[in-house]
Fold:
Amino acid sequence: MLSGLSSTTNLSVEQLLERFSSGSLRQRRSLIPTIENRADELAALGTAVMDGFDPEGDDWAAGWLLQVFQRQQPQALLPLLGSSSGWFSAPSAVGIDYSPLQRDLLAEQFEDADRFTSRILRQLAGEEAERRGYVYFSEVPPMQAQDLISLDRLWTAYSQGRFGFTAQARLLAALNGRYDRLWPRIGWKQEGVWTRYPGSFNWTISAPEGHMPLVNQLRGVRLMDSLLNHPALVSRR
Structure:
């Protein structure tokens, strides 16, 4: 049974890691400052630091550890990543390389990650969407399930579980499907969110839950509704 999470100074680094990897959402988030303060001890564990996590999953505790190392102990990432494109697996049914997205999310370059995601959604939608520069809601259902899952998993894993399509769907469900209530909750403008003018968007981990990635609402909610209800993403809720 997990208890006494407020008293972490006497925990061994192995005990701290166990609590961070197996605790509840609230318990994990309470440990974030301690994880950052003890990054050097965690890095000293070498590759064993990730033994309790699954690269096929979307555990944000694993993603946060990697982001802490990126900021404070970048040398610790070399044995963890090796020559791979990222610690998390990100398969594609159509040969898309998701290593740029992993690099951007790892470095908390969320605007670049969002642009990559938008580009991939157009690619998954087909040549016409790429040519026109945006996706129609009718082009969403045929999108490859594996690729939508990879996009969503990476956003989830590298955002403390705060961003991604399933995070947006979870919030929408809690608001009884009311998009007019969702927009202010996630910090979007109801009349459209496709613009990226300076100061109009928060590209940090402190943004409201569900804030990223952007989905074009200039033509109404049908695109986002179709995306969030794609069977591949519904299966992840």
In short: DSSP finds 13 helices and no strands in the chain. Residues 110-125 form the longest helix (16 residues).
